[in-house]
Design brief:
Layout (H helix, E strand, L loop, with lengths): L7 E8 L4 H19 L4 E9 L2 E9 L6 H11 L15 E7 L3 H7 L13 E8 L8 H18 L6 E14 L2 E14 L5 H17 L8 E4 L9 H4 L2 E2 L4 H4 L20 H18 L5 E8 L8 E5 L8 H11 L4 H8 L30 H5 L4
Parallel strand pairs: 3-4, 7-8
Antiparallel strand pairs: 1-6, 2-3, 2-9, 5-10, 6-7, 10-11
Helix pairs in contact: 1-2, 4-5, 8-10
């Protein structure tokens, strides 16, 4: 996304592992991983819903795996911090309802490969990938800092540095831009669940000391506005305070509002669903283009028809920052990158149980060995186009 050249503000948010929507993303991806661990060809589309006292999982699964759905769901809830009745929701004792069924044969016949037909896309849809050179992660600064704050909060909570924090939290980071470049952090909004007996003054002071200041570093100054628990208290959280549902944090999962989004969520979907695999491929493409200095920013759109392998369209938009014509970049994409679903899955090695790790702190911009779509292995080949 190209920001105005005038001074402006841009805000992105992240949410903690105990946020009810994120809890559902983690449950859906934990189940996906369990099926893939036993059967890499599993077809999985799992949605989760939670409210006070229960978790419901539903969707379609076709797999040779035998999975203990209830125990996987409970473990995901415990891992997200819901392991104590004091939060009003406990993964050890909540109800777990299973409404999984098999995938429709009408979908399977269009997606499955055969001797006469290559694997088609698992659904129609449009996917976007984005990259920018404004951070070392090739991600926009606001979402990068927002995720870092949530990760740091988890660290100080688990290490008992701030022992009274609960599982649920969210934050917003507003960055001041000028001439399209980030200048400083303008505002932080940080809301975290906490025990009832702790004062808001103590919470604010310790969150600033142990979370905000270490993460923001030079981006933070005496003029940065900080709101910690601006409602005055955040005691009731998680599924007790708000219902949760898989796939409601798609902007948190991607670029924080920079770049566009095709609308499809990721969690709970195996890689035959291009909502996930093609969005990963689009990020892979955009990141390598920017890292190769073909553009300072790059957005890639790929669109598919269900059951058809070839994408119906591929579009590159560099917001005027491209060093060579965008048409030439599109040609390079078709030459160097996988675009058919089966090719994407093979090249990025996506039939593995790697997805639970993606369900918190964003799917992009992370230096994790499982995140193959973050590799920069096409940079040298692309740089030749500048010679």
């Amino acid at each position: 996304m190209s920001l105005s050249t005038r001074p402006c503000l841009f805000t992105s948010e992240s949410v903690a592992e105990g946020h009810p929507d994120k809890l559902c993303d983690q449950i859906s991806d934990a189940l996906l991983d369990a099926f893939l661990a036993q059967d890499p060809d599993s077809r999985v589309a799992v949605e989760s819903f939670t409210k006070t006292g229960f978790i419901l999982v539903g969707g379609e699964v076709t797999s040779k795996a035998t999975v203990d759905v209830q125990e996987i769901v409970r473990k995901a809830a415990r891992d997200a911090g819901y392991n104590d009745p004091k939060y009003g929701f406990d993964g050890n004792t909540c109800g777990v309802m299973n409404a999984l069924s098999k995938q429709s044969p009408d979908i399977a016949q269009g997606v499955d490969a055969s001797e006469k037909k290559e694997q088609g896309a698992g659904d129609q849809g449009l996917m976007f990938g984005y990259a920018t050179n404004e951070t070392p992660e090739y991600m926009p600064l606001p979402i990068t800092l927002a995720h870092a704050l949530m990760q740091k909060r988890r660290e100080v909570k688990d290490q008992k540095i701030i022992p009274y924090l609960g599982p649920d939290a969210k934050c917003q980071v507003t960055v001041a831009y000028n001439e399209g470049k980030p200048q400083r952090v303008h505002t932080i909004v940080f809301s975290t669940q906490h025990d009832a007996e702790v004062s808001q003054e103590k919470i604010k002071a310790e969150v600033i000391q142990h979370v905000i200041t270490p993460v923001l570093g030079a981006w933070f100054d005496e003029n940065t506005i900080i709101h910690v628990n601006p409602t005055g208290a955040f005691i009731i959280g998680g599924p007790v305070g708000d219902a949760g549902l898989t796939g409601r944090k798609i902007i948190v999962d991607t670029y924080g509002g920079f770049g566009r989004h095709g609308g499809g969520a990721f969690s709970g979907k195996d890689p035959s669903k291009v909502d996930r695999s093609a969005a990963y491929a689009a990020r892979y493409i955009a990141k390598n283009i920017v890292a190769a200095n073909l553009a300072d920013q790059c957005e890639v759109q790929i669109a598919y028809a269900i059951g058809i392998a070839e994408p119906v369209s591929v579009l590159v938009h560099c917001f005027g920052t491209n060093k060579i014509p965008e048409e030439q970049i599109e040609s390079l994409i078709k030459q160097h990158f996988p675009l058919k679903p089966a090719d994407i899955i093979k090249h990025l090695d996506l039939k593995r149980p790697l997805y639970a790790k993606t369900a918190t702190y964003g799917h992009f911009g992370r230096n994790e060995p499982e995140f193959t779509w973050e590799r920069l292995d096409k940079v040298e080949a692309l740089k030749q186009a500048l010679e």
